[in-house]
């Protein structure tokens, strides 16, 4: 059953149930479809920062998730830049075989990238903070037209990163 519109708490529980270590203590019930959880989270105007930080773990743990469903749904909801950024972050943390899969997905998302600016689930961000985030964002965030302070360095808890000079 597809469930969209989960609360921040429900998304944290879903992440924990899927196996995300940061919310493992919340795990309960049967795991949801990871593609649905990721899209539901990315389609939020505002999302708890701790949940946002857990999102790159989904493509790491489920590199074979239903991308054929997820990408068109993200495009329909105009969330492809958010998804692209999350996948791009994930490519910094995985082994070669999984990384190759994620790079293929990233290539598909590059083709449908939107030129309009966005935030990473922080639409209520005050305008002064948004200007600051825009001016201080990483090259990766700028590539995806997102005003966010989230970086690879913020995600060290996921694993040892595979570094790229272009990130």
Please count the beta strands (DSSP E, at least 2 residues each). 2
Specify the helix fraction band.
40-55%
Structural class: mainly alpha
Mean pLDDT, all residues: 88
Q: Main beta sheet, described? A: 2 strands, parallel
Radius of gyration: 15 Å
| N-to-C span | 37 Å
Relative strand content: under 5%
- Count every helix, treating DSSP H or I runs of 4 or more residues as helices: 9
Helix and strand sequence: HHHHHHHEHHE
Instruction: Indicate how many domains the architecture comprises.
Output: 1
Shape: globular
Unreliable stretches (pLDDT < 50, length at least 5) are: 160-167
Strand order of the largest sheet: 1-2
What does this structure look like?
The chain has 167 residues and is mostly helical. The chain is built from 9 helices and 2 strands. It has helices at 8-18, 34-42, 49-54, 57-61, 67-76, 80-90, 96-111, 127-136, 139-143; strands spanning 118-119, 146-147. Strands 1-2 form a two-stranded parallel ribbon. Helix 1 packs antiparallel against helix 2, helix 2 runs parallel beside helix 5 (67-76) and helix 6 (80-90) runs antiparallel to helix 7 (96-111). It is globular. Residues 160-167 have low confidence and may be disordered.
């Amino acid at each position: 059953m597809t469930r969209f519109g989960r609360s921040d708490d429900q998304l944290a529980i879903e992440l924990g149930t899927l196996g995300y270590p940061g919310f493992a203590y919340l795990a309960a019930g049967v795991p949801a479809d990871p593609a649905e959880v990721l899209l539901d989270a990315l389609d939020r105007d505002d999302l708890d920062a701790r949940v946002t930080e857990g999102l790159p773990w989904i493509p790491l743990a489920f590199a074979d998730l239903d991308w054929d469903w997820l990408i068109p749904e993200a495009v329909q909801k105009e969330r492809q830049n958010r998804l692209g950024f999350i996948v791009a972050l994930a490519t910094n943390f995985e082994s070669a075989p999984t990384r190759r899969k994620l790079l293929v997905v990233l290539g598909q998302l590059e083709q449908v990238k939107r030129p309009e600016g966005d935030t990473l689930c922080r639409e209520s961000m005050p305008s002064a903070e948004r200007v600051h985030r825009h001016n201080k964002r990483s090259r990766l965030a700028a590539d995806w037209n997102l005003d966010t302070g989230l970086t690879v360095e913020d995600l060290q808890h996921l694993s040892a990163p595979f570094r790229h000079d272009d990130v």
